[in-house]
Amino acid sequence: MYYFDPSGMSFRRDDHVIVDTSRGIEYGFVSMANRDVPACEVVLPLRKAIRAATPDDEQRYEANLEKETEAYNLCLSKIEEHRLDMKLVDVEYTFDNSKLLFYFTAEGRVDFRELVKDLASVFRTRIELRQIGIRDEAKLMGGLGVCGRPFCCASFLPDFVQVSIKMAKEQNLSLNSAKISGACGRLMCCLRYEYDTYSEEIAKTPKVDSVVDTPDGEGVVVETSPLAGLCKVSLAKNPASIQLYHRDDLKVKGSAKGRKNPPPQTAQPKDGNTKS
User: Fold this and answer.
1) Among the four residues 100, 127, 186, 204, which has the most C-beta atoms within 10 Å?
2) What is the third-level CATH fold of 205-276?
3) How far apart (Å, rounded) are the C-alpha atoms in residues 118 and 78?
């Protein structure tokens, strides 16, 4: 999704529009009606909407889609003919047909100079081949994630963000790659934009193995639920009794490590003191 200056015109969601882009004039669909947005969300320079799409514009758009299908099939045959180790992902005509773009993935560099010559001789327009990564492929192709919603990258994330395995660990997720990876095979983007909230809540919550004072006496934290603000505590006076408390009702005294008689139910102690 990209923001455009409406140029004094009023648009509704799902309207078809002609806009000025870095690639030239393009045909698009309104995903958000006119509204003010924070300056930090706008990618400069802010380009303008030119007009609402006309019936002629719509016909050209539909014709371009048909030509893109033909170009895709022809390019596939040429790739096989030249025995190139590349995977064609998508083909796109600019609205005015001044350029034809082919998106592909490959493990290494590909010498596609002869392929470009062949394509240019057939389509009689400027040809551009762009090698993209597997995350870009998912963004272009779209699809549904394990959550049942459209891919974040294909629906609202303007740019890819760096995601690390630490973010999954912080959220106490299974480190099974199949469960925390998206369709692209990389770590799911949503791990990143949920990470800050988890980090804030974890910082407020006593860690496992912390010695705490509770309304029922001293105990050791054996399990936490940071988002709910809850902790399970093994009480010193009755180690078999595991009680549930809100973190606001606990006062951290230190770590169970080094104590002579820690409750037997606690996990192996960890270093470091914590603060609630």
Assistant:
1) 100
2) SH3 type barrels. (2.30.30)
3) 8
The DSSP string of 40-107 is: GGPPSS--BEEEEPPHHHHHHHHHHHHHHHHHHHHHHHHHHHTT---EEEEEEE-TTSSEEEEEEE-S
Report the predicted TM-score, pTM, of the whole model to 2 decimal places.
0.66
Residue 270: what pLDDT? Answer: 43
Reply yes or no on domain 58-132 having CATH 2.30.30: no
∠ CA 194-200-206, nearest 5°, is: 125
Q: What is the mean pLDDT of the chain?
A: 87
The residues, ordered by sequence, that sit 6+ positions from 71 with a Cβ below 8 Å of its Cβ are 91, 93, 100, 102, 119, 123
Neighbours of 124 (CB within 10 A): 10
